[in-house]
Design a protein that fits this description.
Blueprint (H helix, E strand, L loop, with lengths): L5 E6 L4 H5 L12 H12 L3 E6 H4 L3 H11 L3 E5 L5 H14 L4 E5 L7 H6 L5 E3 L4 H11 L4 H8 L6 E5 L2 E4 L38 E4 L2 E2 L10 H4 L4 E2 L2 H13 L5 E4 L8 H12 L6 E5 L7 H9 L2 E9 L3 H6 L6 H14 L2 E8 L6 H13 L6 E4 L7 H4 L1 H4 E3 L16 E3 L4 H16 L2 H9 L4 H15 L2
Parallel strand pairs: 1-2, 1-3, 3-4, 4-5, 8-11, 11-12, 12-13, 13-14, 14-15
Antiparallel strand pairs: 5-6, 6-7, 9-10, 16-17
Helix pairs in contact: 2-7, 4-5, 11-12, 12-14, 15-18
């Protein structure tokens, strides 16, 4: 055992306004679970670790620098996604100005694309590729054995899943295998974050407060062309039912959580597991309500009723387009008739419906956008969301961008699905047209009598009224 290493994990500054634009009032600021998992894994192995959620604390670079100076860490880890990569690079430079002896690492889905170039053109020392728990532990243990220079030259070559600089030479190590037994990872270290009740879910996905998010699986068995899963090809793995329910009970009893959003890409992949988890959630129905993501083609009426009977009140799923050709282009693997059937089942059972659509899909025309708007109205849903397409680096769409359209900007800050201006323009469309049609979609789908009536009939509490008033204020602001 060498020297004691202090690790500081940072969720960089990122506002709901930068993510959602005009829709910020309806947006979420979720707890950074990825950092929570890494911190918990380090704590499990006796390491000294802290988390700064700069996004939640509304800290700027200067404020973060002061907290770094106060803690004096040996390692700073930065959570990275495409829209915050510029901030991450700026923060890395600031950290190195504070002390060149601090090891600055970063990880996240953005680095699936050209990590060697990213580490070369920044003050980052190491980029972690893939799941970070095991890699970060090896980095900490390696730095315990010597100073930064010794670690880079002697220890880094043996750590799988990293890209790093050694004397300005970029080196790429072999990939790390995904963690097979994800139950070996402790629950996220939520106690290191700001109080959970200060975080918020999107306006459409909670009924009670406080509310939070839970992840019960990793990866996704599907590969839509705009999703990072199409690039990572990480094997889909699920936590055991016991693990999931122990975490749920901790949230209920320790953190007084009353509402959960299960943020798995698809909660209902395994039918037997879904039924078993719902059986346990039903026992806690008086203390907890919840929502989840499903996939058209992987649910039937029986499963949806089991979800409802165990406390689920809303299901979210991607439709993306009202045009079957567009859906096939994006490799979504379902038929529009199936999506319509799911909505019929949900209405019969009493589940609220939250379908996601995208305006500006590859191959889309004005006629196809109109089909999406008409379909959203046809299925009598409650919370249709209309996003703009984002070709994230490393995805199939990014790799084949020239086939489908062009970038409207090369500034990654704008690469969010909620951005007011689209960052991707399909051939045959314009930026102005996409903005216009997105606004039209919201106004046509929400400002009509059947939609208003559905929401009035859904009111069960004062909190429901407050949420609807917030939603109305957002809607009139677009």
């Amino acid at each position: 055992m060498g020297r004691q290493i202090k690790t500081l994990l940072i969720n960089p500054p990122f506002t709901t306004e930068s993510i959602y634009g005009k829709f910020a009032g309806a947006g979420a600021d979720h707890a950074p679970l990825s950092l929570g998992y890494i911190a918990a894994y380090l704590l499990k192995h006796g390491k000294d670790v802290k988390i700064i959620d700069a996004a939640k604390l509304k800290l700027d670079i200067s404020g973060i620098s002061k907290m770094i100076s106060a803690y004096s860490p040996d390692i700073v880890g930065l959570h990275t996604c495409t829209p915050n990569i510029n901030t991450v690079k700026l923060l890395a430079s600031e950290i190195k100005d504070l002390s060149s002896d601090i090891l600055v690492i970063a990880g996240g889905p953005h680095f699936l694309y050209n990590p060697a170039e990213e580490v070369k053109n920044s003050k980052l020392d190491i980029i972690v590729i893939g799941e970070g728990e095991g890699t970060c532990l090896e980095i900490v243990e390696g730095l315990e054995q010597g100073n930064l220079g010794q670690f880079i030259s002697e220890r880094s070559p043996w750590i799988r899943g990293i890209v790093y600089k050694d004397n300005n030479t970029v080196k790429i190590n072999p990939p790390r295998d995904p963690i097979v037994d994800i139950d070996s990872i402790p629950f996220p270290a939520r106690h290191l974050l700001p109080p959970l009740h200060t975080y918020r879910s999107t306006i459409a996905t909670f009924k009670r407060l406080p509310s939070t998010i839970v992840l019960t699986s990793r990866g996704c068995p599907f590969s839509c062309i705009y999703c990072h899963n199409s690039a990572q090809r990480i094997k889909f793995r699920m936590h055991s039912i016991g693990y999931v329910m122990e975490e749920v009970d901790e949230l209920i009893n320790k953190y007084k959580i009353r509402d959960i959003t299960f943020v798995d890409d698809i909660f209902t992949v395994d039918r037997g597991r879904t039924f078993a988890i719902c059986k346990e959630l039903a026992k806690r129905k008086d203390r907890l309500c919840w929502v989840c993501n499903i996939k058209v083609g992987l649910v039937d009426k029986e499963m949806l009723k089991v979800l409802k009977d165990s406390g689920c009140w809303l299901v979210m799923f991607g439709v993306d387009s009202g045009n079957q050709g567009i859906i096939d282009t994006m490799e979504r693997k379902f038929a529009l008739e199936e999506a319509e059937q799911v909505c019929d089942w949900c209405r019969d059972i009493g589940l609220m419906i939250h379908p996601n659509f995208i305006i500006g899909n590859p191959g889309e025309t004005v006629e196809a956008i109109n089909e999406s708007i008409n379909f959203a109205r046809k299925i009598y849903c409650h919370y249709p969301v209309f996003m703009t397409m984002v070709p994230y680096p490393g995805t199939k769409l990014w790799d084949n961008l020239h086939r489908y359209g062009r970038l409207a900007t090369d500034n990654f800050d704008s690469f969010t699905f909620g951005s007011e201006k689209p960052c991707f323009i399909p051939y045959g469309l314009t930026e102005g047209l996409i903005i216009k049609k997105r606004k039209e979609a919201y106004l046509k789908c929400y400002l009509n009598f059947p939609m208003v009536l559905r929401h009035i009939c859904s009111i069960k509490s004062f909190e429901d009224i407050r949420r609807l008033l917030r939603a109305f204020r957002v809607l009139i602001g677009i």
